[in-house]
Amino acid sequence: MAKKQPEAAAAVDPTGWMVDNDVANFLLLHQKEVLYMCMLGYTFLHGSKVFKAVPKTASVSYKLISMILACTGGGILVPIFLNKVPVPLANDAYPIAILTSFACHYYFPVVAEVMNLSPVVKSLVVVFYELVRAKVVLTFTLAASAAIAPTTFSFPLFGPIMCGTVAGCGGAFLPMNKGLDPITNGLQPPMSSAFVGSALVHLFLNTSLSDGVINAKEKAHLHLALLFITVGLVSAFNMKAAKVKKE
Q: Angle formed by the axes of helices 32-53 and 93-107, to 10°?
């Protein structure tokens, strides 16, 4: 009888600890319950910005539509670019989260005041917000990479990066009558982080940088989420370096 061939040893992942833990499972939104919780934080923070920006005398419908566009602007524009169904039509969880957050802001404005007064609550909401944004940017960067045919290079270069950038900050430009006003004074932190994050993820996953990396997509997602959380917290608490006065 022929001897049994020994089974090939499983590949050892020296960086597997990055994603093989409970913290990573939370940051990567693997559980639906965690995803829905973070979606509430995401829509609530958007709602806080919308209710501050719109006139107090604006109608309920104006405030609601403004909030929908702010929360899902990137999820509306990028699917249109890629000939797909916009996020608020394809995923019922987003409208539910938006309506819940809108009701909190409209009927219980004290909740937003508590968030602004408590650094702990504000930090949690920012973390939830950035985790959802990281997932959205990664999802649409990968979707654009799969949908756009390569031309000059072996993979589509600028298209996926632009789609990922718009996915992470598209709501800032909606409704369209805003034009380029949101970037009059330069890129806002969500815009610059979306661009840098989508560019790094796209180049990492489509070049030799990810050769031999096990679970490269999840590890890229993890680092993207950490980048967004860092930028979000720095922006939320205005932790910027003091300007040096010239003598």
A: 50
